[in-house]
Specification:
By secondary structure, the protein is α+β, with helices and mostly antiparallel strands. It has 10 helices and 23 strands. It is flat and about 120 Å long. Keywords: Hydrolase, Metal-binding, Metalloprotease, Protease, Zinc. This is M23 family metallopeptidase.
Length: 457
């Protein structure tokens, strides 16, 4: 038999394999091989590089005239900006010299202008920025004036307008930031707050607020132990990239001996009442009223019958007199709105605050009112509203304080433990939103796997 016939006589499918899987694989291999040979057959052949025509192009390029550029730069007036800090014992001349200012007219203006003279009253460490011309003439100078508590109150800008100078003041625009810190007690509270393990230590005012916030549950002198932890969320205020002051604690969490205490600040934007601290379930953590409107004083006349010191008439004394020196700060005993602020007969300088429900308080014989105290302004518990004096029918410096319910005087000693007004349904809804945010922040600050045993309320 012809060998060729022997091969071709066989079924082509038998050459692809005996099983279905083998036949599929063999057919795929044959198809790919055919594609490869086809691609090689139609691929163009690259030309030889020596056969590619080459063209040379020559062009003259005109270089820039450096002399013209230098002359143009010399014609432009150069300006220089400089920032310096006021040093102890600085004079105006020394400060301006460091700022690169050589301008007799500017010096004369600063010394003679009432507003510009604020530059000469700056405290050590405060920043001053200036821009000058190439010959040292002052173009503008900026700085910030602070109050007795080192808080910024206004910006002063001195500018050159043609051949003369002007001085302008503007409100300080502070940037508010919210910061979060977590600390563990290894030796003492202050060692933990002074630690900068996360890049910054806690401001002293925030430490004081932590102690005040949790002191009703924790004795910070004896209750702390190694391993206690606290988390705090607070606000800070910045100007030109530098922290000016710390604000209020927005939320705090302290774990002491395995028990966790939490507090959240809440101030309802739709209410005229001031804010306060609450537990995460919405229960107020403070009393509605302070026991006394003065931090340190003694009661010179109580809520009782007495002979009036001026008229000599035996009559009811419907308030409490606190003896204190002139100028002693007077605090609002509770959140509320100023209902009256001004002179009122024998009361002298007088303030009345309307609190929640039917409660109101009155403060008499003040020497002066605190800034911003006027009818309709909102005050929070502890805010300074005025200062002790002896105005009106008074024989000496003291504060006359009245606590009123439905406009009738009551003994403050018997109503001082009234609880803070509870949140209504709408306030509670808004509070839960704020509390959820702070609860999430607490969770971020806690170490992984840390559990919390909440204190009973």
């Amino acid at each position: 038999m012809n060998p060729t016939n022997k091969i071709t006589g066989k079924s082509w499918t038998s050459l692809l394999g005996t099983t279905r899987k083998a036949r599929i694989l063999s057919a795929s291999a044959i198809f790919l091989a055919a594609c490869a040979f086809g691609a090689a057959g139609v691929a163009p052949i690259a030309p030889d590089a020596s056969e590619v025509p080459q063209v040379s192009i020559a062009q003259d390029l005109e270089l820039p005239n450096l002399a013209d550029q230098i002359a143009a730069l010399q014609d432009d007036e150069q300006q220089f900006a400089q920032e310096e800090r006021v040093r102890a014992g600085d004079t105006l001349a020394a400060l301006l010299t460091r700022l690169g200012v050589d301008d007799a007219e500017a010096v004369q203006f600063i010394k003679s202008d009432k507003l510009a003279r604020g530059v000469m009253q700056l405290k050590s460490g405060k920043r001053v920025q200036a821009r000058t011309g190439e010959n040292g003439e002052l173009l503008w100078l900026r700085t910030t004036v602070v109050d007795s508590r080192d808080l910024p109150i206004k910006n002063i800008t001195i500018s050159r307008k043609g051949e003369r100078f002007t001085a302008e003041e503007s409100q300080v625009q502070l940037e508010r930031r919210v910061e979060m810190r977590a600390r563990e007690i290894n030796s003492s509270l202050y060692a933990a707050t002074d630690s900068n393990s996360d890049g910054s230590k806690l401001p002293d005012s925030i430490v004081a607020q932590i102690i005040e916030m949790f002191s009703t549950n924790i004795d910070f002198r004896s209750d702390l132990k190694r391993g206690d932890r606290f988390n705090v969320v607070y606000e800070t205020f910045w100007q030109d990239g530098m922290m000016v002051r710390a604000g209020r604690i927005l939320a705090g969490e302290f774990t002491n001996r395995g028990t966790t205490y939490q507090s959240v600040w809440f101030e309802d934007p739709h209410s005229k009442q001031g804010g306060g601290y609450y537990s995460l379930d919405g229960k107020s953590l403070k009393k509605a009223f302070l026991k006394s409107p003065l931090s340190f004083s003694r009661i010179s006349s109580g809520f009782s019958m007495r002979s009036h010191p001026i008229s000599g008439v035996w009559k009811a004394h419907k308030g409490v007199d606190y003896a204190a020196s002139t100028g002693t700060p007077i605090r609002a005993v509770g959140d509320g709105v100023i209902d009256f602020a001004g002179k009122k007969g024998g009361y002298g300088n007088f303030v009345q605050i309307k609190h929640w429900a039917s409660y109101s308080t009155a403060y008499a014989h003040m020497s002066r009112f605190a800034p911003g105290i006027r009818r309709g302004s909102k005050v929070s518990q502890g805010d300074v509203i005025g200062y002790v004096g002896s105005t009106g029918w008074s024989t000496g410096a003291h504060l006359h304080f009245e606590f009123r319910v439905n406009n009738e005087a009551r003994d403050p000693g018997k109503v001082a433990l009234v609880q803070q007004a509870p949140l209504n349904a709408a306030e509670m809804t808004r509070f839960r939103m704020a509390a959820a945010d702070m609860s999430h922040r607490f969770a971020l600050l806690r170490p992984a796997g840390a559990g919390t045993a909440m204190a009973a309320r």
